[in-house]
Design brief:
The protein is an alpha/beta fold. It has a single domain, classed as TIM Barrel (Alpha-Beta Barrel). The chain has nine helices and ten strands. The strands form two sheets. An eight-stranded parallel beta barrel has the order 1-2-3-4-5-6-7-10. Helix 1 runs parallel beside helix 2 and helix 5 (about 165-175) runs parallel beside helix 7 (about 195-205). The longest helix is centred in the middle third of the chain and has 21 residues, at about 135-155. The protein is globular. The N and C termini lie close together (about 5 Å). The model has no long low-confidence stretch (mean pLDDT about 95).
């Protein structure tokens, strides 16, 4: 089966305000045309903390504008990365912030249902990491109303965590819903030193969104093929699963984006026909 190949929003454009990953306010539309020229299938939209309320996913007329650009370019939006949760986690000790994020996710699901979105990626890494059982318990409690909404709109909540394979599997088992799935980031797992075979054995069938990047063990992102990620083993193992989701290029970027993206896309393309 030919999987969908996409890009994390902003990777084909100059950095927005010097930030490594952000929704590029004011010129996000330009990326759809570039993606179409590169024959990419989709862009994973970003909803980040900064400028949250003027993101087209939330502002008046925004969904119509996205749909119009999708129609004109053929580049879809199948997934949304909810990066705002890095600053306002669902398991925050600040109850007001946690409630805000819960409500924002429910509103996002309603708006996303008007696109062809299949996945909301829910980051539980870095500032939003689930550091202990108390965090996990609060996260589950806060996410449950969102899960009910995801069931209604048939959109996956694709969790991205830094948990080890068994702990991540245990977390998934606490949700009685097939809509709670996995975002697998091969670079992040390599940086954490996890065994990808053990990971995929634990929850490979639950993966619905894949981020393609490379990182050095215990360190940051590098160009694809120059880090610790074992792409050969990963794609060989992935063949065991009926993976139908997108491959999202979240690879290393520089200030401009496009040249280094093309280099890495050429490097990874042979793997994609899984």
């Amino acid at each position: 089966m030919q999987n969908k190949i996409g890009v994390m929003q902003g990777r084909l454009l100059p950095k927005y305000h010097g930030r490594y990953q952000a929704h590029p306010v004011g010129y996000w539309q330009d990326e759809f045309k570039i993606a179409s020229q590169l024959e990419l299938d989709c862009i994973e939209f970003i909803l980040d903390y900064n400028d949250l309320e003027i993101n087209p996913l939330f502002k008046d007329g925004g969904i119509q504008e996205i749909n119009k650009i999708i129609e004109s370019t053929g580049v879809e939006v199948f997934s949304i990365c909810t990066d705002f949760l890095m600053e306002m986690p669902l398991h925050s000790n600040n109850i007001k912030n946690a409630k805000f994020s819960q409500k924002a996710l429910i509103n996002l699901l309603k708006n996303a249902s008007k696109l062809r979105v299949s996945d909301l990626v829910i980051p539980c890494v870095d500032q939003s990491s689930l550091k202990n059982q108390k965090d996990a318990d609060k996260f589950i409690t806060s996410l449950m109303p969102v899960v009910d909404c995801a069931e209604k709109y048939r959109i996956n909540l694709s969790l991205e965590t830094d948990l080890d394979p068994q702990a991540f599997f245990d977390l998934l088992m606490r949700f009685d819903s097939d809509r709670v799935t996995v975002n697998y980031d091969i670079g992040n797992s390599a940086s954490l030193g996890y065994d990808l075979i053990e990971e995929l054995n634990a929850y490979g069938s639950r993966i619905t969104d894949i981020h393609i990047k490379d990182r050095i063990l215990g360190s940051g992102p590098v160009e694809l093929g120059k880090g610790s990620a074992d792409f050969n083993s990963f794609f060989n193992k992935l063949k065991e699963f009926d993976y139908e989701g997108p491959f999202i290029m979240q690879a290393f970027r520089d200030d401009e984006g496009i040249k280094i993206f093309n280099k890495q896309l050429d490097w990874i393309k042979p793997y994609f026909n899984v």
